[in-house]
Amino acid sequence: MQIYLDYSATTPTRIEVITLIQSVLSQQWGNPSSLHEWGQRAATIMETARLQIASLINATEPESIVFTSGGTEADNLAIMGVARLYSQPQHIIISSVEHSAITEPARMLELWGWQVTRLGVDAKGQVNPEDLKAAIKENTALISIVYGQSEVGTVQPIAQLSQIAREKGVLFHTDAVQAAGRLAIDVQAMPVDLLSLSSHKIYGAQGAGALYIRPGVEIVPLVLGGGQETRLRSGTQAVAMIAGFGLAASLAAEEISKEAPRLVKLRDSLFSQILDIPGLMPTGDLLHRLPHHVSVCIETGNQEKINGRNLVRQMNLAGIGISAGSACSSGKISPSPILLAMGYSEKTAVAGIRMTLGKDTTQQDIDWTAMVLKQIINRL
Fold first, then answer.
1. Residue of 324, 199, 184 whose CA lies nearest to 256
2. For 168-277, where are the E strands, in sequence order?
3. Helices (H), strands (E): how many in the chain?
4. Mind listing the UniProt keywords for this protein, alphabetically (predicted)?
5. How many domains is the chain partitioned into structurally?
6. d(C-alpha 232, C-alpha 227), whole Å
7. 297 catalytically annotated
8. Which residue(s) pair with 355 in the sheet?
9. 344 and 360: one domain?
10. Nearest-CA neighbor of 203 among 274, 159, 251, 147?
11. CB neighbourhood size of 343 (10 A)
12. pLDDT tens digits, residue range 97-130?
């Protein structure tokens, strides 16, 4: 029995998306910048996708969607694109539980003389809005807070946090890669200035992403050349991947009202079935949480055998794909920086695992996974 429970890492490309991608590659392969018929057909396909992705987040102006190669590039374009507006180092605020696509650009800015404030979080991974208020300075150029945390599933109060930024006149970015298509996102209802998206997290193909830029917000491009994407991301666009991204976004928007509650039911079922495992502790906010996300730590005093990476290997041998937040370097297991930021000890922070569900996940998958996880831990 094969069970895939790592949908936060990547989702399988939908058959409808694969069919469309194949059609575009074989029949609509023109360069969308070309003025002839072949080019204009490709351009039409790409603009249709732009409309579909804008609709997913209720962006009323499709031109606010700038295509990238994925979520990482979108995050980098947001952070560095704002930073390059300034001739002198300024101040940026991020949370202590951001994806590396945010933390690494922030670290680079520090090397360039920028001040970086990393907001602490509580034991559930939540940012306190009052901490954000207190951290804003006169020279704060940007605030970037993740929408839904990929390792522990916590959803941040983005509407409230972005409102604080707006009142202070500071640009606000959120990495919504994990949240889009799983939670309803409305950029008209909350004052987010920049928002990152990724195709392969919503059953599109790998290799496409987007950055939403609120009309009127200026950033400096990172990739220079022919001036595609309103001069914000030069280079011939990956039309087929973008077309698939658009279709995936459209299908996600149609299905979210039914799919999200279904995932919540399965998520809660898995939590309830494994809570009696000795030493198991759920991680993240159980209330404000991504609908498809289950994450736990298992502290037993036998962390050499019961750690995140070993549990991933053991579950894989049983035909179940999950993931861990800890990393392995030179044979030594390193604790998850996300769990450390949430206040967990180094001993506990090596024992975190994540099981994320998707459209193909069934109740039978959940029941089998819970049983196998218990058996593995008892054996170890």
1. 184
2. 171-175, 194-198, 209-213
3. 11, 15
4. Iron, Iron-sulfur, Metal-binding, Pyridoxal phosphate, Transferase
5. 2
6. 7
7. no
8. 294
9. yes
10. 251
11. 14
12. 999 999 999 999 999 999 999 999 999 999 999 9
